[in-house]
Amino acid sequence: MIVREESLGVRAAVILGCLSLTVCTAQTTTTTRWVKTGADDQTISRELQICNAQVNAALTSEHGINADINATLGRNWQLGSTQGIQREAMRQQAADYADQVLSNCMRAKGFTREG
Fold first, then answer.
1. pLDDT tens per residue, range 9-36
2. Is residue 97 part of a domain?
């Protein structure tokens, strides 16, 4: 009985800690603009479409990798009550990777990021 009470306390502390991190690290939405001297809106739009196609290809691969990881470790995460945390971590990692691919592509084309 004592063991159960301690594990509930630990679980409550972990959940509270995770909620605190979620609130503290919540990001606000900002608009990103890509600029390049001499580039009009049509050029920027076309180049963004090309780079977004690269992002989509990269994310397809990333989602496949994440699915494999989840298939391998998902049961362990479920038993450890960390499945939601792990899923969110993989989602954030994929979002960061997509941003990196887009940034690298647009910078390679001579654009700079504003905002």
1. 444 444 545 444 444 455 556 678 999 9
2. yes
